[in-house]
């Protein structure tokens, strides 16, 4: 008796067809999901930078500042003149507007912010937006 080893041409072609159909269904979903992911990622990056600056101000008992640049879509956190973090928006994401005076948030040694309430709005190239709200207590949240 002879044993057959390997796959037939029909079996291989069937597997290739199934992979092709699966890929053609999946790729459009991933492409549509990517801008939303980048938008959320950019907003979370800003929020984490704000939290880092606030905690550094409390820990070192001094002031910390986060400065936003809406033209270059970047931000810098500094404490006592020393940069503790630099960041920029992911590809396709921009800082759309900043309603914080002087485009900077300053935290004092107790973690309180210099603004009653301010917003940083980030936007993707499909028109989606996320707003990072900062209040005087120093808390920030993404909406």
Summarize the structure in short:
This protein is an alpha+beta fold and 143 residues long. It contains 1 helix and 8 strands. The strands form 2 sheets. It has a 4-stranded antiparallel beta sheet, covered by helices on one side. It has a 4-stranded antiparallel beta sheet with strand order 4-6-7-8, with helices on one face.
Oligomer: single chain
> Secondary-structure element sequence?
HEEEEEEEE
Q: Strand sequence of the main sheet, in spatial order?
A: 3-2-1-5
Per CATH, the class reads Alpha Beta
Q: What proportion of the residues is helical, as a percent range?
A: 25-40%
Give the overall average pLDDT. 90
For the termini, the CA-CA separation is: 70 Å
Form type: elongated
Give a written overview of the molecule.
- This protein is an alpha+beta fold and 143 residues long.
- It has one domain (9-142): minor pseudopilin epsh fold (3-Layer(bab) Sandwich), CATH 3.55.40.10.
- Helices cover 36% and strands 33% of the residues.
- It has one helix and eight strands; from the N terminus they run αββββββββ.
- The chain has one helix spanning 9-60, and strands at residues 64-69, 74-79, 82-88, 93-98, 104-107, 117-124, 129-135, 140-142.
- The strands form two sheets. Strands 3-2-1-5 form a four-stranded antiparallel beta sheet, with helices on one face. Strands 4-6-7-8 form a four-stranded antiparallel beta sheet, covered by helices on one side.
- β1 and β2 form a beta hairpin.
- The longest helix has 52 residues, at 9-60.
- The chain starts with 8 loop residues before the first helix and ends with a strand.
- The relative contact order is 0.16.
């Amino acid at each position: 008796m002879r044993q057959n080893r390997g796959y037939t041409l029909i079996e291989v072609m069937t597997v290739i067809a199934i992979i092709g159909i699966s890929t053609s269904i999946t790729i459009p979903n991933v492409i549509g999901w990517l801008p939303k992911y980048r938008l959320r990622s950019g907003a979370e990056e800003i929020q984490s930078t704000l939290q880092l600056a606030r905690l550094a101000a409390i820990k070192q008992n001094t002031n910390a500042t986060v400065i936003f640049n809406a033209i270059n879509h970047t931000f810098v956190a500094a404490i006592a003149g020393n940069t503790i973090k630099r960041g920029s928006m992911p590809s396709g994401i921009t800082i759309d507007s900043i309603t914080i005076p002087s485009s900077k948030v300053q935290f004092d040694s107790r973690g309180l912010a210099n603004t009653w309430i301010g917003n940083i709005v980030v936007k993707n190239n499909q028109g989606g937006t996320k707003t990072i709200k900062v209040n005087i207590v120093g808390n920030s949240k993404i909406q």
